[in-house]
Amino acid sequence: MRSLPVLLMILCTLMLAGCPKKPTTVPESSGSTTGESATGSGQGEGQVGSGSDIAGGSASATGGPAGVANIIYFDFDRSDIRPEYASLINSHAKHLAAAAGAKIRVEGHTDERGSREYNIALAERRGQAVRRALMLQGAGDAQLTTVSYGEERPAVAGSDESAYEKNRRVELVYGR
Amino acid sequence: MIRRALLILSALALPMGQASGQLTVQILRGMAESVPIAIVPLAWDAPGEMPWDVSATIHSDLERSGRFRPLARTQMLELPGTASEVDTADWRMLKVDYVLVGRLSPMPDGRYEVRYELVSVANGQRLLGTAMLADRNALRLASHRVADAIYEKILGVRGAFATRIAYVAADGPTTKRSYRLIVTDADGANERVVFASPQPIMSPTWSPDGRSLAYVSFHSGLAAIYVQTLTTGEQVRVSAKSGINGAPSFSPDGKQLALTLSRRDGNVDVYVLTLATQELRRLTEDEAIDTEPAWAPDGRSIYFTSDRAGGPQVYSVGLGAGDRARRITFDGSYNASPRVSPDGRQLAVVTLDRGAYRIAAVDANGGGMRVLSGGQLDESPSIAPNGADIIYTTRDRGRDALAIVSSDGRIQQRISASAGEVREPAWSPYLN
Q1: Dist. CA B209–CA B375, nearest whole Å
Q2: Tell me, what DSSP letter sits at residue B288?
Q3: Strand A104-109 relative to strand A144-150: parallel, antiparallel, unpaired?
Q4: Is the pLDDT of residue B6 over 60?
């Protein structure tokens, strides 16, 4: 039940900060990246919950901003960043901007369905969307390395939607 | 008179240790009109045991292909050693269309001569008569070559029994996997680990001469493409750009590698790398994903997957300057992983078929799509060098496993792995 205040906090942040710009490589859009969808956030296909209640906890243990999660989840076959991750990305970008020596790996992943190499490409596009969002908010290009794992390194086992939605993700890994 | 074709066979030595055989290939569904044949045990009149049961290997090769129905030895009324000893009336009574007879003989130099003849029961005609020499440890390979010749004589297409399969094995729990690149004979024997890593290994593909594999490995911490020579184990890193280094595919002459790069800007496109000079040419330039290149056998165009129209579909682009990409597949919302048949006339693809990812064959111009497999998460098709069969990754009790389907969808083979997950099979070219 701790997710309620977190959700409120994210919504407030969203109203202040707006949403991250839509990544330029996303060819098609069903409009889900517009600000309107933020008000109804949380119920879309592939929803895993807000960015702060993921397994694996916050990034602080590995060098990121204290108390901020380091995983961004994605909808099926999509690489646009859902509005609820605006504050998460903003926090990491600010942290990186303030610590010029900090480096992260932006690791993109997909669920297991379909072609493995196509999934590598899809995961790369997710990683690039996050990389661009971080850079737009102050992170330096040299601080970021994107790595696409496609479906090769799932977070959880299983071939159902609950596993898939936890595997469609970008992880921000500090210190490398 | 037996035509003497002296083929000197020696087993290919691979550098790393032999793993225990992991794969077992079984026929699930054969052709209703499979060819009845008798593989008579080869005569052996030297002292001691036969060093290898050549006939048994031929028998199981032909049976496993789903195209033949070899007669059990216990049902044979006689065991002729030469074509002239074959009594066609007896074999006709056993409803056999062909009889293979022969002899295995030790040679003074320590090798063995495999001499065989194929007889048509219908008219007593001798269809094949050949002898070959083989080292003791190459008798299994020699047996596959005999099966290849029988297959070709009767079906009109060379068999692919004397070929190999490369695949990726993943072991351990989901979040702590280890990976091995493995090469095995097409029947699952002679398994060898080519490369092992705690980081993912992906997309193995054969050089046209069958001597090397190109693959993607993350063992440096980032994706890079390597070419490894099987006999020496020498591994050369050929592409380690920023971002994706993926989906390698050798040109038919083996001099170039088509591959997928995303470079620093993240735009996923297909490139062609000339291996000797490291010269890199960008083949596609599109905001969308372009990946999974596959060369047409004439080397003049490349098929690839692109989502430029929204979802993944197969396209083709010529290698001439200014050639524009052309969309090939239009049936369905998801077509990916094109592989081209040896005659260039068919593609194997992964297609989304009523909610399931399946292997399909489609004409090279995009028409006539036929779904061949029946799984939920089938992927990674690879076509045998004779074009007759397609090996692919499927799911078996929640794990990645391999399976084979014939190009017409009528024959299915299951490949059971003893442990772990096995996937991304790559069928070798003919190995001479």
Answers
A1: 32
A2: S
A3: parallel
A4: no
Residue range B287-343, pLDDT digits in tens: 999 999 999 999 999 999 999 999 999 999 999 988 999 999 999 999 999 999 999
The answer to whether B223 contacts A148, with C-beta atoms less than 8 Å apart, is yes
Closest CA to A73 of A102, A103, A34, A41: A41
B240 and A CB contact within 8 Å = no
CA B1, B6, B7, B11 torsion: positive or negative? positive
| Shortest alpha-carbon distance between residue B318 and chain A (Å) | 21
CB contact under 8 A, A127 and B311: no
Q: What is the pLDDT confidence band of residue B124, given thresholds at 50, 70 and 90? A: very high
The SS3 assignment for B139 reads: helix
Structure tokens at A84: 């609820």
Stretch (H or E) spanning B61: helix B54-64
What are the distances in angstroms from CA A68 to CA A11, A87, A100, A154?
A: 15, 9, 19, 22
Termini Cα distance of chain B: 26
Q: Kindly report the CA angle at A115 between A114 and A117, in degrees rounded to 5? A: 145
Phi–psi pair at B300, nearest 5 degrees = -100, -10
Q: What is the model's pTM?
A: 0.86
Angle at which helices A86-98 and A3-17 pack, to 10 degrees? 70
The three-class DSSP label of residue B154 is helix
Q: What is the pLDDT of residue B21?
A: 59
List the single residue in A with minimal CA-CA distance to B336: A115
Give the model's confidence band at B22: pLDDT under 50 very low, under 70 low, under 90 confident, else very high.
confident
The residue in chain B having the minimum alpha-carbon distance to the alpha carbon of residue A118 is B291
Residue of B218, B267, B379 with shortest CB distance to A115: B379
Residue-level pLDDT at A59: 52
What the block records as the tokens of B36 is: 């009845």
Segments of A91-175 assigned E as strands: 104-109, 144-150, 169-174
Chain B residues close to A131, C-beta within 8 Å: 266
Residues of chain A with pLDDT under 70: 1-62, 176
What is the SS3 assignment for B306? strand
Q: Which amino acid is at B16?
A: M
Chain A residues with CB under 8 Å of B219 CB are none
Neighbours of B125 (CB within 10 A): 11
State pLDDT tens for residues B149-194. Answer: 999 999 999 999 999 999 999 999 887 899 999 999 999 999 999 9
Place of tokens 């083979």: B413
CA distances from B196 to B192, B205, B214 (A): 11, 16, 14
Spatial separation of the C-alpha atoms in residues B293 and B315, rounded to whole Å: 9
